[in-house]
Amino acid sequence: MRIPTDEEILALHSKHAPTPGALDLVYTHCVIVGTLAEQLCSRPGPGLGVDADLVRAGSLLHDIGVYRLYDDAGNLDHAGYIRHGVLGYELLRAEGLPEAIARFASHHIGVGITRADVLAQHLPIPPDDYLAETGEERLVMYADNFHSKTTPPVFRTASACAARLRRFGEDKVRAFQAMRDTFGEPDLAALSEAYGHAVIDEPDLTVPDRSEGDPTSGRRAAMLLIVTEDGGLLMHHRDDKPGIPNPGCWAGFGGAVEAGETVEEAVRREVREETGLPIADPIFLTEAVDHEGDGRAVSLFYIVGGVRPEDIDLQEGAGVAVHRVEDLPGLQVTPFVRRAIYSHLLPIIAGRPGGPNGRG
Ligand SMILES: [Fe+2]
Q1: 281 CA to middle of ligand 1, Å?
Q2: In the predicted model, what is the mean pLDDT of residues 344-356?
């Protein structure tokens, strides 16, 4: 099999990128994934037995299908984003590249997508297994987890990757851990400095397997952060009572996950109980640990718009208010909530149309 050269690959990117901005975003990410993969497979010690040239080409081409998700106005189809894998495969096959190269596009997402995942989550791709099979595919898939094309792009540590994968299930966290055991962890510091992309670290919430039947819900909570249409935060003021975690602090709406509930069900129920409002589609933001409070693991979600303070019929807590992002430093915010807002929510607010980095 002839492996395309870096020049040929860049020419393919240039040919299919709809805008210079898309080319910069996607190609830079691909180069970073290639550098991470190269770093992981060139470590001293027993070789991983992967073909470094194939890894390089696979890394540089894995996300080429993203270009097919831009509409004529230059907007990316975020909702159908997962399609970029199969679209990339089709693009590469149409360009005459061999199956073994094209598979890096269709078989690199997350830690692998199964037919059952496609069906259960109603993913907009043909039901099939999209799992990394070769060592090269596994390495590109693994390396891809450590860098995200968010606005702004970021690196994630291995523990932050594991925390992020948890929303897709414990089996995904285990699959990631298996790759982590094989390939080790990349050194992100030099790349972070070279590209100016921050490193996001989060505690690894991998809970050791407990005895059967324990739903682990006693130690879990869910919280909703509400972004207003104009980019403020509609927050919940906690009671200032001794004995409760983070008294008198501002936070989102939420509470403990009950036995048998998913975190999404918990966040909907808690918000309804506290505010009287139904929340249709909370978007997962991140996992956090309330280190300064009761030590619980908290799944944070957010929504944008649709809720005004006057709509809220508050049943718990001291009050609600909309706070401007620039007022957060002077506000008493629950520490883990503040960390989640700064690391995860503000980049999203900044990237919205009308935000400082908005592309819309
Ligand atoms: Fe991708």
Answers
A1: 24
A2: 74
